């Protein structure tokens, strides 16, 4: 309540209120000065309000005292429960931890005033999770309450923690949160094999590095604590097998290191140890963290292919060897206990030319063709060994046959030489240095000897000097070479090798005479005529040219005339090539008239005319005697028609020499009733009797009157 000393209680003073929350939250009785709150106040929203009050003269509305300021403080009550702002919680603690090991700390906050009473004083307690865990009442630290908690027995716990204000007294407000505690693994379980011994059967044909077996020692731990290593401690298979670990499954993988042979050894025994890689010293008392087991491997016999005594056979043979010469022998045997006989053959994919043969029983390899070292110096062939009792079992042996060289190739020029000699060359001048090659390969290298042939030894133009180093030099013997006299010289050179017996060849060196500059470099080597040859005068040359031109003109005229002769074969639009058609106004009975005439007679096309007329020229109307007909098969009619037109075009001298399209309006021959046209009927030479038309009914009466032979016939 506000009261002014000026106020006498007569109602002359009124009070007004301003400031934070005035009129909305707080109101004042202007007569008495009593201040009231209009709504419920919440200290957690706003704890203080600053207001200003003033007393005014009711009549003049002027202040009777200075404005005064005062503060309204909201007094707290316990109306907010504790809250875990970070909940729910998750935490982990190693298994087998001692009692009192800290797990996690939880914290609850209370919005009430901590400075007033116990409204914000929180106490923690555990509602769920005992007797495994406990919580500190004041700090909220959760700790283990039981020793030797085993993850393998139970790895997760759900705790419910309560925070209560008013120091936990009755009437206090409370809040809860959940805490999930997971026991983390420690290496407290040693590995153990489920069985004391294992046995596996493997075929002897199993390739090296193949997996024989997988074994695993059980370990209840997880992660790095379950990682193991396997070792072969003892046994008779130490060098034959090895064991490694699969990092994903922690299995021991036994693989083969050497090939198995049932005939040599039928079983192996291995002593294998599995041990943890990461051992925790705190749990050594639980026993050794390793275990042993025995693995027995039984080798099974399989039908193996024949085996050669050597992986690679090396043989030599002279290229002069005759067909059937023995080169060498290969041998293979069946490694199985049955020791089946073996037959040999050559894989022809490695001997496509069939240079060699092999005896199927003995394995003796012989030549089948003449050999040439220069074509192929080494032959690599594959020999197949097949069991007689089981042909599917095939062994492979490899043979390298080296061909020994003989002197069977004569030496020759090392290259195609382009030799020139200058017209101003002096005697003894070197014009070419030559060398030779030989396809043979003597063991001591080549040695060639050069000389001129007997025919060329005494020539006066060139000489040859053997340099004794497989080369020779060609020199001039004279000077004064002239292209006009002789532009090319051919020098035969005799080359002999050092083989036994030696071989020789004659090679011809072509030497051209050239015009050279001052430095001896050839400029031109063509034979030029400096003076026009005599014997033909200028008039004779002109006459020859005139004859050539006359012949050309005649050829052009002949070609032009032949083209003009071909033009008439191409019809002009003005020429009339139409067929002449005679039109009759009389009509037959149509499709419904089936009694007047047998229509099948008109459909018989098995006839052909004896005479043919060209359809590619303008037809002329002729009154000829009616042609006769012969009965032939349907498919012959059109074939013979086209064939005759083709022969006519072939023998026609005016036919064009190019492709042309000829159109024939030929639809086949007439029927046995023959033509009804008057173009042929009026011919006096016609011997056809048309009296039967009178028997066809009234519709053909007019035709019968026109063509019949009776007294009423129009033509006699």
Automatic annotation (TrEMBL):
Residues 4-84, 85-193, 194-308, 309-413, 413-530 form the Cadherin domain. GO terms for molecular function: beta-catenin binding; cadherin binding; calcium ion binding. The chain crosses the membrane at residues 530-559. SMART domains: CA. PROSITE patterns: CADHERIN_1, CADHERIN_2. Keywords: Calcium, Cell adhesion, Cell membrane, Cleavage on pair of basic residues, Glycoprotein, Membrane, Metal-binding, Repeat, Signal, Transmembrane, Transmembrane helix. It is found in: Cell membrane. The keyword Protein transport does not apply. One of its GO terms (cellular component) is adherens junction. It is a single-pass type I membrane protein. One of its GO terms (biological process) is cell migration. It holds the Pfam family CADH_Y-type_LIR. Cadherins are calcium-dependent cell adhesion proteins. PANTHER family: CADHERIN-23, CADHERIN-7. This is CADH7 protein. It comes from Anseranas semipalmata.
């Amino acid at each position: 309540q506000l009261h002014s000393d000026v106020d006498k209680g007569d109602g002359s003073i009124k009070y007004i209120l301003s400031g934070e929350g005035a009129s909305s939250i707080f109101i004042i009785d202007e007569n008495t000065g009593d201040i009231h709150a209009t709504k419920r106040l919440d200290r957690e929203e706003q704890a203080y309000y600053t207001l200003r009050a003033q007393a005014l003269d009711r009549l003049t509305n002027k202040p009777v005292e200075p404005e005064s300021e005062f503060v309204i403080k909201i007094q707290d009550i316990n109306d907010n429960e504790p809250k875990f702002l970070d909940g729910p919680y998750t935490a982990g603690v190693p298994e087998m931890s001692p009692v009192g090991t800290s797990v996690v700390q939880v914290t609850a906050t209370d919005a009430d005033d901590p400075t007033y009473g116990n409204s914000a004083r929180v106490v923690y307690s555990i509602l769920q999770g005992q007797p495994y865990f406990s919580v500190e009442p004041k700090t909220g630290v959760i700790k283990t309450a039981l020793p030797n908690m085993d993850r393998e027995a139970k790895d997760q716990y759900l705790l419910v923690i309560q925070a209560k204000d008013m120091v936990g007294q009755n009437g206090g407000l409370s809040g809860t949160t959940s805490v999930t505690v997971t026991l983390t693994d420690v290496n407290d379980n040693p590995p153990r094999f489920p069985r004391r011994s294992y046995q596996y059967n493997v075929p002897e044909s199993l390739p090296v590095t193949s997996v024989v077996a997988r074994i695993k020692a059980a370990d209840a731990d997880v992660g790095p604590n379950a990682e193991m290593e396997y070792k072969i401690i003892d046994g008779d298979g130490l060098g034959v097998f090895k064991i490694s670990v699969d990092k994903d499954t922690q299995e021991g993988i036994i693989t083969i290191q050497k090939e198995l042979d049932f005939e040599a050894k039928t079983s192996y025994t291995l002593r294998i140890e599995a041990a943890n890689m990461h051992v925790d010293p705190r749990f050594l008392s639980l026993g050794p963290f390793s275990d042993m087991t025995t693995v027995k491997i039984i080798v099974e016999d399989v039908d193996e292919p024949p085996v050669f005594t050597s992986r690679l056979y090396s043989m030599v043979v002279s290229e002069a060897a005759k067909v059937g010469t023995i080169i060498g022998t290969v041998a293979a045997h069946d490694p199985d206990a049955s020791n089946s006989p073996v037959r040999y053959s050559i894989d022809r994919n490695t001997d496509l030319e069939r240079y060699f043969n092999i005896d199927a029983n003995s394995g003796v390899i012989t030549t089948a063709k003449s050999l040439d070292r220069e074509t192929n110096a080494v032959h690599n062939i594959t020999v197949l060994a097949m069991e007689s009792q089981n042909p599917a079992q095939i062994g492979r042996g490899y043979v390298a046959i080296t061909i020994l060289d003989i002197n069977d190739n004569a030496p020759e020029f090392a290259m195609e030489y382009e030799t020139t000699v200058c017209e101003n060359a002096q005697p003894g001048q070197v014009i070419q240095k030559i060398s030779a090659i030989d396809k043979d390969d003597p063991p001591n290298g080549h040695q060639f000897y050069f000389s001129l042939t007997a025919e060329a030894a005494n020539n006066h133009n060139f000489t040859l000097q053997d340099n004794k180093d497989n080369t020779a030099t060609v020199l001039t013997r004279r000077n004064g070479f002239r292209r006009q006299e002789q532009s090319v010289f051919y020098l035969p050179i005799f080359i002999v090798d050092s083989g036994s017996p030696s071989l020789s060849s004659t090679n011809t060196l072509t030497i051209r005479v050239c015009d050279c500059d001052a430095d001896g470099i050839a400029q031109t080597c063509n034979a030029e005529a400096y003076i026009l040859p005599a014997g033909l005068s200028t008039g004779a040359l002109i006459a020859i040219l005139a004859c050539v031109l006359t012949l050309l003109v005649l050829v052009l005229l002949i070609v032009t005339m032949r083209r003009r002769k071909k033009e008439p074969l191409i019809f002009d639009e003005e020429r009339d090539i139409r067929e002449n058609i005679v039109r009759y106004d009389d009509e037959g009975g149509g499709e419904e008239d089936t009694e007047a005439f047998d229509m099948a007679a008109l459909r018989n096309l098995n006839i052909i005319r004896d005479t043919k007329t060209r359809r590619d020229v303008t037809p002329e109307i002729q009154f000829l005697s009616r042609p006769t007909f012969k009965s032939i098969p349907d498919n012959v009619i059109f074939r013979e028609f086209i064939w005759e037109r083709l022969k006519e075009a072939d023998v026609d001298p005016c036919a064009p020499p190019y492709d042309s399209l000829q159109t024939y309006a030929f639809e086949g021959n007439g029927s046995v009733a023959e033509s009804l046209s008057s173009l042929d009927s009026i011919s006096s030479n016609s011997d056809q009797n048309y009296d039967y038309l009178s028997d066809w009914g009234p519709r053909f009466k007019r035709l019968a009157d026109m063509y019949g032979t009776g007294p009423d016939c129009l033509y006699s």
